[in-house]
Hints:
Strands 1-2 form a two-stranded antiparallel sheet. The chain is built from 15 helices and 2 strands. By secondary structure, the protein is mainly α. The chain is globular.
Amino acid sequence: MSTATTPAPAPTAAPPAPGRDRARPLRWWPAAVLVLLIVAPYSALPLPGLLDGPVGSPGSLQLLATCLLFGALATGYDLLLGRTGLLSFGHALYFAAGSYATNTLLLEAGLPFAAAAVLGLCFGAALALVLGSVSLRVTGIGFSMVTLAFAQAGSILVSRNPGGFTGGEEGRAAPAELLPSWLVGIDHTANLYWIALAYLVLTLGVVHWAVRSPTGRVWEGIKENERRVEVLGLKPYGFKLTAFVLAGALAAAGGLVHLLLTGGSTPQTTTSDFTLSLLVMVVLGGSGTRWGPMVGGILYTWADHRLGDLAGSGAVSDLPAVLRVPLSQPLFLLGMLFVAVVHLLPGGLARLPSRLRRTREENR
Length: 364
């Protein structure tokens, strides 16, 4: 007597979760936003309240380019604060170094812009290497104070105008005759906008690649517990110095873009207040997140410009003194916005979607 063996049914794949299907199209939102940003100079769409004129107008493109620049700069700064746990108060120094070094090479040495830009970027990275190798000899608040001391020294040096190279408190204009013609004039504002956008894309790409690399994983370990990294046989100093130099080089590149956008180098970019603004941008958007620092930098820069216009408008000047005095101060308005976001959205704007999803799931 023989028995027939019935073959077991082949396992069927489980149907994908509905939430996963809905999430797949959302993965492409960065590409969609990038396309919109690329074609923005061709748009005549008005955005009342957000921009003074159509999107493609020179004034609007100048503001948008500045927002993109500082979004990228905040992303690079978060490589120290959010990824490695290093609170630096001197990051503005490398931003100013890229701007002033390039401008000085143009004015004093008469170099072509491309050569001056490369040398200016190298100078900013080399300065970060030298000062970072000293600053990282101490940790914690000591590191923050050393970076602040270097930044203050750089700010004083610029304001003293040694040899007439920095222009002192008035700064120094870039020589228009030595810049490429397609970067000079209001008619070429779109080109400057695209350069700022390219800088943002480059910074996001470099930071994303660095964070996902083996070195980036060590940075994460240093942020969580530096002593544990040492126990594993790794030397945190070299990894922290790598993050410091990379962030400094990205800041120097931002200084080059700022030089083109503003047409010169300004001493305000050397102050510690400038770095504190970067710190506010990162915290506002969400430190240690992929998109948070960029969002915080863009929002803060836009609010800084728009609230400044609001503070000087007739709508505020006609208010009673008890309201007119605080509302006429842009820093007061920015401070109130920052306090509201920190209080209502712990972790920054980047974590708002996850908080909304969690709230929705809890209410089901």
